[in-house]
Design brief:
This protein is of the alpha+beta class. It has two domains: about 60-255 and about 355-410, Rossmann fold (3-Layer(aba) Sandwich); about 260-345, no CATH class. Helix content is about 30%, strand content about 15%. It has helices spanning about 15-25, 35-45, 60-70, 105-115, 145-155, 165-185, 200-210, 260-265, 315-325, 360-365, 365-375, 390-400, and strands spanning about 5-10, 30, 35, 75, 120-125, 185-195, 215-225, 240-245, 280, 285, 295, 305, 310, 330, 340-345, 355-360, 405-410. The strands form six sheets. A six-stranded mixed β-sheet has the order 16-7-8-6-5-17, sandwiched between helices. A hairpin with a 5-residue loop joins strand 11 and strand 12 (about 305). Helix 3 packs parallel to helix 6 (about 165-185), helix 4 (about 105-115) packs parallel to helix 6 and helix 6 (about 165-185) packs parallel to helix 7 (about 200-210). The longest helix is centred in the middle third of the chain and has 19 residues, at about 165-185. It is globular and about 80 Å long.
Amino acid sequence: MGEIEKMTLESESLIDDRLNKLKELMPEVFSESGIDFDKLRLELGDEVDEGLERYAFTWPGKADAIRQSQMSSTATLRPRIEKSRSRDGEDGSFDSDNIYIEGDNLEVLKLLQRGYHGKVKMIYIDPPYNTGHDFVYKDNFGNSVDNYKEQAGLAGQSNADTSGRYHSDWCSMMYPRLRLARELLTDDGVIFISIDDNEDRNLRILCDEVFGEANFVSQLIWERAYSPKNDAKYVSNSHDYVLVYAKSIERFVIGRLPRTDEANARYKNPDNDPRGVWKPSDLSVKTYSPDSDYPITTPSGRVVEPPAGRCWSLSRNAFRERLQDNRIWFGPNGDSVPCIKRFLTELKYDGMAPTSIMFYKEVGHSQEGAKELVSLFDGKGYFDGPKPTKLLQRLITLANLLMCDKEVIEV
């Protein structure tokens, strides 16, 4: 990148960005002095909540956390050419598509807004789990450089569970980072956040507020341990979570996993259908409809009815069409309850839908991640809880990242 020595990226204010969007949608609610809230209420009509009681998630320090996300940053990003490495592994070169930024992640997220606002397809966050020993961020940037050096060099202060602000401090740390992360996502973007039992309930509520409850995708379970801890006081915990939220659930398309031999083995072709292998699918459904409740006569002459409280998934006419097209199976003797033939070649998607449990045999375990870190840094483990590469590869697959040319951020 030539003789670049300094890159100034003064961040845009989150308030200014949202005001500009509101002006585009409702210019009539703005006056010379700002927003006319009386006009805004009239425009919103019944959607305005005037009640005194409402459901809300709050904690001491939430107002300050909101202000932290709204404040712009005047810091700069300085390229360290001497510590950079090219695509070919050459030191001191700057031609890689990847960027590693060292600094407090809240301020960095602000700096990224100008260049990457709405351009990031996937974000992965691995925050402190708040176990009582994790670092607590002190988000006061009056002296940001010294603050960062103090935090990075001292391994931080523990957030002891005897503190009256045990959960509040953690929520205040996470909230502005989540708000800024959302602003970076593309409309079809997705965020993955690792967490354990200590704060998973609070993180879920925080994400519901920031991303919208309707944009919740899943709470994945990662089997991080392959053997129980016999010294556990109550239950040996062998899993962590990965929360998944979309920027817009209507736009996000989850990546599917490659089909396995085990999955394909479920498809057979007992009647030698020229369309290939298929697997039987239940013809009955729970949602009852009188139009789909009718008797069916099997080839053997036996009359069958839908199970009690259920009906057929096909209307009479649709059933006849499937029957004529040889898509109904009555068993090898023509005497079984009918089922629908689902052909492997006609599946809507090429891959398999991911399940909510990620087993360590597929995505690795915590010790595997620790070994990878030690190997990468010549026998030294610089931080706790590194995630295995295979886990991140799985999340990249779920983000559909391999099929796009947009950016990825790991915080």
